[in-house]
């Protein structure tokens, strides 16, 4: 078997300049770099899921390099092979992350509140012993 040749290289991605209209630089397996007239460059993939045309954006160049975009493409293709829509999965992951963050914040805030209440009750007990009851 021959080695698979990519349509893009890191240097060709870095040299991509904006034009009057947005254009695509194709890699392989559906990955492409969308270059917008503003100069913004996005890693994207078009796919069909349940007879709907969908486009997933993996990230922006240079924050997301070519090798990382290819890895995300591979992950998305694996999800599709398992019958899972990558866009829906990304939404579920964000929801799960926000819930776990909220739970973490709630746990920390509850612990802090409990400590404050213990300190206040301890200081109130100390002041009660110096007070006079009638």
From TrEMBL:
Start and end residues of each Integrase DNA-binding domain: 8-91
A single Gene Ontology MF term assigned here is:
DNA binding
Task: Determine if DNA-binding is one of this entry's keywords.
Answer: yes
Sorted UniProt keywords: DNA integration, DNA-binding
Q: Pfam family example for this protein?
A: Arm-DNA-bind_3
What the record says about family reads: Belongs to the 'phage' integrase family.
Protein name (Swiss-Prot/TrEMBL)? Arm DNA-binding domain-containing protein
Annotated source species: Novosphingobium pokkalii
């Amino acid at each position: 078997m021959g080695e698979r040749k990519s349509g893009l290289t890191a240097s060709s991605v870095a040299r991509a300049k904006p034009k009057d209209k947005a254009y695509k630089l194709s890699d392989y397996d559906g990955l492409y770099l969308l270059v917008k007239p503003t100069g913004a460059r996005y890693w994207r993939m078009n796919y069909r899921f349940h007879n709907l045309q969908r486009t997933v954006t993996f990230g922006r160049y240079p924050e997301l390099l070519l090798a990382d975009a290819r890895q995300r493409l591979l992950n998305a293709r694996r999800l599709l092979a398992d019958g899972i829509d990558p866009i829906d999965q990304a939404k579920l992951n964000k929801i799960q992350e926000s819930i776990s963050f909220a739970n973490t914040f709630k746990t920390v805030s509850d612990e802090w509140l409990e400590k404050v209440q213990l300190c206040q009750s301890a200081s109130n007990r100390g002041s009660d012993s110096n007070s006079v009851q009638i």
